[in-house]
Write a structure and sequence with these properties.
Elements (H helix, E strand, L loop, with lengths): L2 H12 L8 E5 L2 E6 L4 E5 L2 H22 L2 H7 L3 E3 L4 E3 L17
Antiparallel strand pairs: 1-2, 2-3, 4-5
């Protein structure tokens, strides 16, 4: 494959625009931004810093997947689906969460 064809393929693969859930929580004195759709997280001293670092981590994550040629494989393993007609990726859809779980720590 010619360099320009390879660059064009990578550019198209990099054009993934999706709204993905990012969970922000506090752990001690740090804030954590975690995305189950990518199994990726980042942290910071403030919520704003955690969000900014998460955005940077996502950009690095996708850049490296593209460079290694494993973007499609990793997205599929993470539950993403590709529309064969539009060549568009969609993240997994989370239908519900369990908010009240009783945990028994005994026999």
């Amino acid at each position: 494959m010619k360099q320009t064809e390879k660059e064009e393929k990578h550019r198209k693969m990099a054009d993934i625009g999706a709204r993905i859930p990012v969970i922000i929580f506090q752990e001690g004195n740090k804030f954590v931004a975690y995305c189950p759709a990518l199994d990726l997280s980042s942290c910071g001293d403030t919520e704003v810093q955690a969000r900014r670092r998460f955005t940077e981590a996502v950009q690095v994550f996708f850049r490296e997947l593209i460079a290694m040629g494993t973007l499609e494989e990793v997205l599929e393993e993470s539950g993403w689906r590709k529309d064969p007609h539009k060549q568009v990726w969609s993240p997994p859809v989370y239908k519900s969460t369990i908010e009240d779980v009783k945990i028994y720590a005994g026999a």
